[in-house]
């Protein structure tokens, strides 16, 4: 029989773990990461969880519940550690799907492993290697599909390792609390309990009518899931094919709209030559802002037609920033822009827009100049601010800097 090869990896208390990797002397203590003043807890050590600290919880309340809590600011290189963690996964298999900063799926079927023991050995090796290289503890679930592996990985945290053999899916799920099913939240659960549905197995004992009443339109699929069926494949992220994105963390928090707009424009200028170099166009611009306490908001807007010109997207920036940055009095710690809705069909715009054709020729010329080995970079007007001014305003570095050299 072919062994189960789908793995769900879930880092344990990820943000705290990243901090503890830098400060091992804090291991075993009640530690959390979060903003102090009006902030929230974004991650808590298992020792802190044991006394009632959870996420997201206002930091001030956490400090009341647990007065000896060691509260660290949310300032680590979480993105960098996450990338290195998934890089280690990609050394095992090319089929890696990042779900969030700290969890994702792997499919080990291309590894040619003979049996379940070989799969388990390889996954344990990876778990150990992530610890050895990054000092990040992770939990692993192995099963025949994504849903079951995901539930398995969360079952025995931290450093969990749970394997569900092929054919055992339904029996594995049946006794588990219905709240373990993705999509069943704290609000839904009491409603289900009132109907006597406490476990995942309980769902399978109910009539079609009852399930339709409880779960609405998606009830058939939900019942399938509760029986342990899930056809979704692990989809490796070829990020470049699906979207283009960049983010910038500020050295200090920023409140000026102009500064934010300029950084965002710089990102558009950084990404658009890549879009053109790939022979693509993009339609949707999504802007995300993050406050000092790590709460974030985002807004997206699409052009009527896909474009590969910076100027077409500049016009979307102000409305997007206004829409995403709802708490205008609060300073921003990070912004990111993402282009999606990638299109590589024939260009339609030029048929009725001669001006766009001219601008595209100009953009192509700029790309060529910038790709030359002169060391000089042709800049757009809004990039002409000196690096000193950027630093004074708290920018970590001018956004175009990463292109040169
Ligand atoms: Mg996690």
Automatic annotation (TrEMBL):
The record marks 15 as: Substrate discrimination. Residues 6-185 form the UmuC domain. One of its GO terms (molecular function) is damaged DNA binding. GO terms for cellular component: cytosol. The active site is at residue 103. Keywords: Cytoplasm, DNA damage, DNA repair, DNA replication, DNA-binding, DNA-directed DNA polymerase, Magnesium, Metal-binding, Mutator protein, Nucleotidyltransferase, Transferase. Mg(2+) binds at residues 10, 102. Its main location: cytoplasm. It is an enzyme of class 2 (transferase). Its EC number is 2.7.7.7. Residues 374-405 are annotated as: Disordered. The keyword Transit peptide does not apply. It is found in: Cytoplasm. Binds 2 magnesium ions per subunit. One of its GO terms (biological process) is error-prone translesion synthesis. Its cofactor is Mg(2+). The keyword Transmembrane helix does not apply. It comes from the Bacteria. InterPro entries: DNA/RNA_pol_sf, DNA_pol_Y-fam_lit_finger_sf, DNA_pol_Y-fam_little_finger, DNA_polymerase-Y, DNApol_IV, PolY_HhH_motif, Rev_trsase/Diguanyl_cyclase, UmuC. SUPFAM superfamilies: DNA/RNA polymerases, Lesion bypass DNA polymerase (Y-family), little finger domain. It catalyses: DNA(n) + a 2'-deoxyribonucleoside 5'-triphosphate = DNA(n+1) + diphosphate. Poorly processive, error-prone DNA polymerase involved in untargeted mutagenesis. Copies undamaged DNA at stalled replication forks, which arise in vivo from mismatched or misaligned primer ends. These misaligned primers can be extended by PolIV. Exhibits no 3'-5' exonuclease (proofreading) activity. May be involved in translesional synthesis, in conjunction with the beta clamp from PolIII. Belongs to the DNA polymerase type-Y family. Monomer. This is DNA polymerase IV. It comes from Synoicihabitans lomoniglobus. The gene is dinB.
